[in-house]
C-alpha cells in the first residue's frame, strides 16, 4: 500500500479503494521572479526609478516573494503574463465549482519600495486614529474629532463641515460615532497630502505622506490590478492576492479593498472574484468582515499560517479559530462569503471538515476550498478531492530561473512543515 493511500486512510479513519487523485483543481501562479526577460534592452533599463533586491521570507504555507523592480514597463509585462494566467485558469479549471483560481502578487505590479512607503503612511493614519480616539473605545465622537482635528491641522471651518459630513455618511448607521473603517476611508494614501499640507507640526504622518509622483505611480499599480480583476470577472476566474512581506502588507490590503468593493460588489455578482490573504490575524479578518457588510461586497479570504505567535500551539489555535469564525459566518448569512483553507496541517483540515459536517455544509459547498502546494501533502489534497471537497494545488510556472526561488523555498519548507502538523 502506498504512502499516500496509508495517510489518506489515516485522515479519513476508514479504508479507501483505488486512487484518490481526482477532483483536484489547479491554482496557476506565474513566477515573475527577477529582472525580466532576457531580451530586455537598455532603453527599458533607463526607465528604472528604484532598484530593490529580491528577497525570500518563509511562511508555513507560501513564499513571500519580493520582486525586483526594474521599470514601469517591466510591471506592464508582468501584468500581461498574469492576464494570460487568468485566462488559462478559466480554460483549465477542473473543480466542481466551475471557476478556476489564479494567484498574483502585487510586488510584481509596482515598485516594492513605493508599497513600503504607502504601508508606512497607512500605519501612521492608524496611529492618528489612536490619537483621536481619546477614550480608547474604538470610536470617536463628533466633539472629540473636532477637538483633535483643530489641534493637529490648520482649520478651515467650511472644510471641516465637509469632512464631518463625509464621515457621517461612511459611519455605521450614519451616526455621530466615527470608527477606524470610516476614518481610513477619509485619510487614504491618495488624499493624505490634502490634510498633511495643513499640519501644525512636521511629524511621522507628514514624513510618510506620499508625493504627487508617488501617488501617480500607486495609481498605475492600481490600474494594473483593476485590469486583471476585470479580466478575471469577465472570464470567471477568481483572483488570489497573495500575502507578502509584512512591510508591504498594509498597502497591498488597501489595494485589495479597492478591488473587492468593485468586483465583489453584491449588486455586480452573487459570488466574489477577489480573495485577500490572511496570516493568522483575527483582528484583520474581523475588520474586513465589517467592511464587507458596510460597503455591501462579498468577503473572500485565503487563510495561511504564519509563525507570528509565541508558540506553535498558539499559531494552530489562531488559524483554527479564524476558520471556524468564517465557516459559522457563512452558515449564518448564507452563500456569498468564500474561504480558501490553505494549509498542510492535517489536524486543521480535519477540524474544518468536521465543522462543515456539523454546520450542514456539504463537501462540495462552493463557499469552501482547500489548497496545498504542488509536490507537498498530496495525501491531503487527493483525499479531499476524492471525497468531494473543493481541493486545489498551487502550481508555479515560468522560466527555470524564475521558478527556482519557489523550488528552493519549497525544499526549505519541507524540513519544517511536518513539525507543525501535530
TrEMBL record:
<dbReference type="InterPro" id="IPR002872">
    <property type="entry name" value="Proline_DH_dom"/>
</dbReference>
<keyword id="KW-0285">Flavoprotein</keyword>
<feature type="region of interest" description="Disordered">
    <location>
        <begin position="28"/>
        <end position="56"/>
    </location>
</feature>
<comment type="function">
    <text>Converts proline to delta-1-pyrroline-5-carboxylate.</text>
</comment>
<keyword id="KW-0642">Proline metabolism</keyword>
<dbReference type="InterPro" id="IPR002048">
    <property type="entry name" value="EF_hand_dom"/>
</dbReference>
<dbReference type="GO" id="GO:0004657">
    <property type="term" value="F:proline dehydrogenase activity"/>
</dbReference>
<dbReference type="Pfam" id="PF01619">
    <property type="entry name" value="Pro_dh"/>
</dbReference>
<dbReference type="GO" id="GO:0006560">
    <property type="term" value="P:proline metabolic process"/>
</dbReference>
<protein>
    <recommendedName>
        <fullName>Proline dehydrogenase</fullName>
        <ecNumber>1.5.5.2</ecNumber>
    </recommendedName>
</protein>
<dbReference type="InterPro" id="IPR011992">
    <property type="entry name" value="EF-hand-dom_pair"/>
</dbReference>
<dbReference type="InterPro" id="IPR029041">
    <property type="entry name" value="FAD-linked_oxidoreductase-like"/>
</dbReference>
<keyword id="KW-0560">Oxidoreductase</keyword>
<dbReference type="InterPro" id="IPR015659">
    <property type="entry name" value="Proline_oxidase"/>
</dbReference>
<keyword id="KW-0274">FAD</keyword>
<comment type="similarity">
    <text>Belongs to the proline oxidase family.</text>
</comment>
<feature type="domain" description="EF-hand">
    <location>
        <begin position="120"/>
        <end position="155"/>
    </location>
</feature>
<feature type="compositionally biased region" description="Low complexity">
    <location>
        <begin position="47"/>
        <end position="56"/>
    </location>
</feature>
<feature type="compositionally biased region" description="Acidic residues">
    <location>
        <begin position="35"/>
        <end position="44"/>
    </location>
</feature>
